[in-house]
Amino acid sequence: MCMIMVPPSNPLHNKVVTKVNFKITDTCDRSVVTLSGKKKKGAKFVQERCRLCIVTCADGSTHTIHAGIRGKILEVNQRLKTNPTLITKHVSVLLIN
């Protein structure tokens, strides 16, 4: 189990985050994860370079958060949609198994 977070050295910590978008493409929305059963069927598989979310800042800049490891998305922090500044406060973006 691994929690993906934004490290303090990331430039996002010096900016005001206005939006965290988990919809990567028209058909790929990382925030929709439906798990069932002991083997967590329905989890989304990701590779190291897969985009997890796109973060938009008040100055108009965008930053892409990548998975960094290979695994399955088990859970996404849904509070990031309503309170995007949480991404800079050591709150996990998602859980990967």
Kindly describe this structure:
4% of the residues lie in helices and 33% in strands. The N and C termini lie close together (4 Å). The chain has a four-stranded antiparallel beta sheet with strand order 1-7-6-3, with no helix packed on it. Strands 2-4-5 form a three-stranded antiparallel beta sheet. A hairpin with a 4-residue loop joins strand 4 (51-57) and strand 5 (62-66). The longest helix has 4 residues, at 79-82. The protein is globular. The protein is mostly beta strands and 97 residues long.
List strands and helices in order, with pairings.
Elements: E1 2-4, E2 17-21, E3 44-46, E4 51-57, E5 62-66, E6 71-76, H1 79-82, E7 94-96
Antiparallel strand pairs: 1-7, 2-4, 3-6, 4-5, 6-7
